[in-house]
Amino acid sequence: IYNNYWTYNGQVPGPMLRVREGDTVEITLHNDKTSLHEHNIDLHSVTGPGGGATLTKVKPGQSKSFSWKALQPGLYIYHCATSNVSVHNSHGQYGLILVEPKEGLPKVDKEFYVVQGELYTQGGIGKKGLVLFDPQSLLDGNPTYVTFNGKIGGASPMKVKKGETVRIYVGNGGVNLISSFHVIGEIFDTVYPEAAMGKNSAIFKNVQTTAVLPGGATIVEFKTDVPGKYLLVDHALSRMNKGAWASLEVEGSPSPD
Question: Which of 97, 206, 250, 253 could be bridged to 17 by S-S, CB 3.0 to 4.6 A?
């Protein structure tokens, strides 16, 4: 099954950006000359009209730059905000930017980057070859496929060793569904709900499933105690049938106790 994605840097999701609270950041957006459409970028971490979108409208072959100050820590979605925004986003134009607090985040052994997305295609599930966009399914909020990192079944398996601590940065590129993010066979030791962090932000402990809103994010952390294969899912489980799963492999000696 092949889909025509519109991308940042040729990947879905776009590259994970990482800055520190208080940083001044400069972003240049270039629209490839072979592009068919105008694009821009709206970063939810940017304070100001359009989150940068009003300053980065680029026609094919154009480049534009702007600078901004990272005022508040958190994990934020960025996406194309060119009209029709939902069409651009459902074609893969989304990613995450982390604004770490000034003191940084606690150390973990492994970090991963996972963003849920939706594909609206003609011909139904399983139609082979190049699939065409279905605008009516988008308006109805009924995606043909729900993906992690732009693929059915996610990307290559994430691999860790038993006893390691894991942090997953989770986003929802949308455009319609609320994700119920869950790792089958694990309990999240720590969750940053809605990816909030910093002074007076809530931190949740011992969580089974956490909500990730369209255009939102979360951060989950856990220690791996038992080796084996674990599935990351949207626990609205019919979405597994549409492709919303990915795997985490924990290597190590058995833990019969």
Answer: 97
At 113-144, the pLDDT tens digits run 999 999 999 999 999 999 999 999 999 999 99
- The C-alpha R_g of the chain, in whole angstroms, comes to 19
pTM of the model: 0.97
> Backbone dihedral region of 144: left (phi > 0), alpha (psi from -120 to 50 degrees) or beta?
alpha
47-53: long-range contacts (C-beta < 8 A, 24 or more apart)?
A: 47/71, 47/72, 50/81, 51/78, 51/81, 52/27, 53/81, 53/82
Please state whether the peptide bond connecting residue 143 to the residue before it is cis, i.e. omega within 30 degrees of 0.
Answer: no
- For residue 150, pLDDT over 80 is answered with yes
174 phi/psi in degrees, rounded to 5: 75, -160
